[in-house]
Design brief:
single chain, 333 residues, inorganic pyrophosphatase (n-terminal core), Diaminopimelate Epimerase, Chain A, domain 1, 6-stranded parallel beta sheet, 6-stranded mixed beta sheet, globular
């Protein structure tokens, strides 16, 4: 597979790098790192994402080069950090998914279990053991002897730090540290990155006050093991452009002693319901719960989206019921 991917890249001149509809530090860091790595090889790179880069990620230099209109001129696409149709809805709606399907396409991802898996290309490098897509790109670089500039190294470091929550969650392995060390040698500077990240994750007063509202509205279920909060469309309109509501409170929700799971539900006027799931250490149930609800993800971070018209009350009840069932099931070790 690595050979096929390498030769597809070698043969391409105009490459579009695609981020899915949920840009995070991993997908953005991966896209920007590839822009540098492949750009240094003389390739012409365009960065595409169907949704705007959230404010908190804008510490990553180059985010402003991302466009939300799929270009017509490209001979290869690389989809990073996603391998499901569900997360490429914007591209689908734009009518330009066919362009991607009709040309060579590479998928680089570390989500092992997904619904509606992309099926139009065989060039899929999906490593469920990798802490982040950035790590997969690092491995590809090493395997192919591609040059990694300090800028590329820094973006890969951001993507690893993003998905491992600063090397703090279960995805972190000895290999992650080894890669971090190598990226440091290549010129990535973690203290500097952290400083920039902290600066950009600061919130405006209105968001600080909204955070208080969300904390106040947080509900508890299943003997307080499940914490959850509901964000309706009006608040998505008002606050989402400034800060992702889930990122605002989910960490604090998990800081409640009894909490095993934190869920942020969002409901949209068109009937769509989404949920972001995060688990505390020792409760690796997020992926299973998301899958049961029709989504996917990792043990400690996952999500799902409902579009079949069922009501929030119905979805909430079903989600809480199955989450309780998972929490009551003894973990295999
Ligand atoms: Mn990722």
């Amino acid at each position: 597979m690595e050979d096929t991917i390498r030769s597809a890249i070698e043969q391409a001149n105009h490459i579009v790098i695609i981020q899915a509809d949920n840009p995070d530090a991993d997908s953005l860091g991966s896209a920007l790192a590839l822009e540098h790595i492949l750009g240094d090889m003389g390739k012409d790179i365009v960065l595409y994402c169907g949704v705007n880069t959230p404010e908190y990620l804008r510490y990553l230099a180059g985010w402003d080069r991302i466009i939300d209109t799929m270009p017509s001129q490209f001979d290869l696409s690389i989809i990073v950090d996603a391998s499901t149709y569900t997360l490429l809805e914007k591209l689908n709606l734009s009518g330009r998914m066919a362009w991607v399907k009709s040309r060579p396409s590479i998928v680089l991802d570390h989500h092992a279990t997904v619904e509606h898996k992309l099926d139009f290309t065989n060039m899929q490098l999906i490593d469920g053991t990798a802490a982040s897509t950035g790590q997969i790109i690092f491995d590809l670089c090493v395997a192919n002897n591609w040059t990694m500039s300090a800028a590329a190294a820094e973006h890969l470091m951001s993507s690893i730090l993003g998905d491992t929550q600063g090397l703090m969650n279960d995805l972190t392995t000895a290999k992650t540290y080894r890669i971090m060390a190598e990226l440091t040698e290549l010129g990535a500077n973690r203290p500097q990155l952290e400083e920039a990240r902290r600066e950009y994750s600061k919130m405006v007063k209105k968001i600080y006050q909204y955070k208080g509202m969300l904390i106040q509205r947080t509900e508890f279920a299943s003997d307080d093991r499940i914490t959850f909060v509901h964000v309706p469309q009006t608040e998505i309109n008002e606050y989402s452009p400034l800060y992702n509501p889930a990122a605002l409170v989910q960490f604090d929700m998990l800081q409640v002693r009894s909490a095993a799971l934190a869920i942020v539900f969002k409901t949209y006027d068109d009937g769509r319901i989404t949920a972001a799931l995060r688990g505390n250490n020792g409760y690796p149930i997020c992926g299973k719960l998301a899958e049961y609800m029709g989504g996917g993800g990792h043990d400690y971070a996952a999500g799902f989206k409902i579009t079949d018209g069922r009501s929030y009350e119905e979805i909430k009840a079903e989600c809480l019921r199955y989450a309780t069932e998972l929490l009551d099931t003894p973990m295999e070790s």
